[in-house]
Structure formats: C-alpha cells, structure tokens
Specification:
The structure is a homodimer of 183-residue chains.
Chain A lengths: L1 H18 L6 H8 L3 H7 L3 H23 L6 H16 L13 H8 L6 H20 L5 H21 L3 H14 L2
Helix pairs in contact in A: 1-2, 1-4, 4-7, 5-8, 5-9, 6-7, 8-9
Chain A binds a DNA duplex (30 and 30 nucleotides) through helix 3.
Amino acid sequence: MNQKRELLLNTALDLFYYKGINSIGINEIIKVSGVAKKTLYSHFNGKNDLIMAVLNQRHQVFIKWLEDKLSRPGSDHELIDCLFESLQSWFDGNEQALGSFGGCFFINTSAEFSNQESDISHYCRYHKEQVRQLIQSKLNFKSPDLLNAICLLKEGAITTAYLTGESIEAIQSSKNVLHKIVC
Amino acid sequence: MNQKRELLLNTALDLFYYKGINSIGINEIIKVSGVAKKTLYSHFNGKNDLIMAVLNQRHQVFIKWLEDKLSRPGSDHELIDCLFESLQSWFDGNEQALGSFGGCFFINTSAEFSNQESDISHYCRYHKEQVRQLIQSKLNFKSPDLLNAICLLKEGAITTAYLTGESIEAIQSSKNVLHKIVC
DNA sequence: ACAAAAGTAGAACAACTTGTCTATCATTGA
DNA sequence: TCAATGATAGACAAGTTGTTCTACTTTTGT
C-alpha cells in the first residue's frame, strides 16, 4: 500500500527535479512509475498535493544529507571546508543521496510558481530557513556576517553551478573568502 | 509596424517575468496587449522566438542599467558599495528601469527550461557572462577571488531576496565581507 | 486616389492538461 | 472460503495550449 505511494513519490521527484514541475504531467508520472492513475488519486488529492509531498520528501533527504556531512568537523574552518567540498561533490554528481545535480529543487520550484503566497512558495522558504538554522547551530563563532556570507555564497554557488556548469573556481574562492572572516 | 512589436515585447516581458513563462500563454499576451494573434505571429515565428526576443530585451535593459550604476565609482570599495546598494534599491522596487523586483529573470527562466542545451538556457548563460565581464572591467584589484566573491554574493543576494523577501542584512554582510578582501 | 501593406477578430484544429469514473482483476485477513 | 480492499487499464469530460487560417478593416506611401 505504501510501496505504491513511495514509488510515486520517488518517480515524481525525479521527473519534477530534472524536467521541471510544469513540464511534467500526471500522465507522465503514472507512465514512468507504472502505477494506475486511480491509485495516484487515492494516495494524493491532486497534483498540488503531490507536489507538496515531493517537496517534503526532498527536504527530508537534503537535511539528513547535510546533517550527516556537517556532523564531523570541529572548528569553523573545518566546517566551511566541509560544507563547500560537499557542495562541490554534489555538483559533480558524487553524492548518491542527492542524485545527479540539477540545481536546488526549491529555488527551481519557487521560480516556476511565482505566486509568493502559495503553499509551494511557503515550503521553499521554510526549507531555506531550516538549512540556515542547521548551519548556524554548527558554527562556534556566532557572527551574523559569517552566517550570512556562508548562506549567500552557498546559494550563489548552487545557482552558478546550475547555470554555467562550472563551479570549482567558485567553491575555492568561497572557502578562501570565508576563512578570512573567521576570527 | 515596430510599435506593435515593441508593445508585444514589453507586454510579454511583464507577464513572463512576474508570472513565469510556462504559466503565460499566447492568448494572455494578445489579450493584455490588445494586439491580434495574427500580428503576433507576423512579428515572431512562435512562442520560442518571442521568448528569445524577450530575453534579449531584458538583457539590454539590465546591462544598460548596470553600466550606468557602475560608471561613477572610482575605488573598488566604492564599486562594491555602489553595486550592492543598487541591488538593494532594485529589491526594494526603487529602480524604474528594472521595474518592481521579481528575482533574476534569467535564473527564473533557466529554472523553468531544464534542458541545458536549449537556445533559452544558452542565452541565460550568456547574460551572466556579460554581467561578470562588466564587473571585472570595473575592478582595479584584479583578483579572481574578489571577482568570484562579488558574483557569488550578488547571485546569492538576488535569489535570497526573491525567495525570502528579506535582503537588507544580506546586502550589509556582503559589503562587509568584500571590503575585507580588497587589499 | 488607390493599391499594397499591416492590422483586426476570432473560428478551427490537434495535441495536451487535470481529474473522474467504470469495469475488471489480485491480494489478503478472518 | 469469501467478502473487502487495493490495484489495474483506459475511456471520458472539460478545459488549455500553440498555431494556422479566413475574412474583413485600417493605415500608409506614392
């Protein structure tokens, strides 16, 4: 019973993430997953409901991945290196948990749904807040500038890597710059 | 003759930028602009052609705006302040040339068209390159780290401002951090 | 003044969208 | 064993999409 639900969730995430939510119809999801349309509508109230569930699924996976990555480092210097090297590894498609890189799912989704008051936009904002809080909790040097810089450079690196494909230089510069801020 | 073309272009840009390209159909564009459907298809080969023309239009406007903003400052410190204060002003909707803020049109568009080999994605990449080159040409201190940091923080600030709505803190931190890099 | 060009409104079309519904088959728990 | 549950394929309604086309009117250059 829940196997079908998970299958639908994973298939939808794959299709939505790599091809865009508006470009993927219900029919494609059921065709790729091999699940009947009626089964989909018995698990989800509609496409919007499915999108929300997919966002939640991705959020759980991403946060778990990030928590795991940031659990080891001790000093802030190590944390910064660890964070940006993990991002680099993600961009290069070497992070199994996240799948091959297709940008930030939440940024992409937010760009597709321009209505800032929709449930979807709200969830994208929530995700970014959670990521920020996670990074903050791992920092020893509690400086707003440092936290802001880390989050902005991270965001910039993700969108730049997605848009241009290149990222090594950006990651290295981010690390260099941030090391200068840590007292 | 060209009046209709420009009217279509400006109407399409407005609708595409604030509501997303995939969410806006040809019928909406002709309804809002008041131009006949056949006239649209006499000026543009199809929706894709219109999108490319709109991207080009926005690119011209944005580059001209940025060139104007960055023409005054002398030192790199002034350049950094000027750039990020201009961004802040854009986010706040105080830059007439750019209209009210709806994120970066090229990032948003790139997120909607996931096929990285399409004409549309290529143009988005081209725009970002041009912006980077413009900033580079204005910098006295030719440091790759400085240029990368400026571009990444700028990108991060735009997407963060679009997603969360807040930006003042991010802009201030960006300036603080960058001033530490300039020798 | 008049022919050519450029505009108009909107019908038609094929291909798609989400969502509902019918009818049949398989699994399973008591 | 047998009723209940869950899944299946696919037709269907109602709507939207991009695009083409016809028939008519306005603008424009000479």
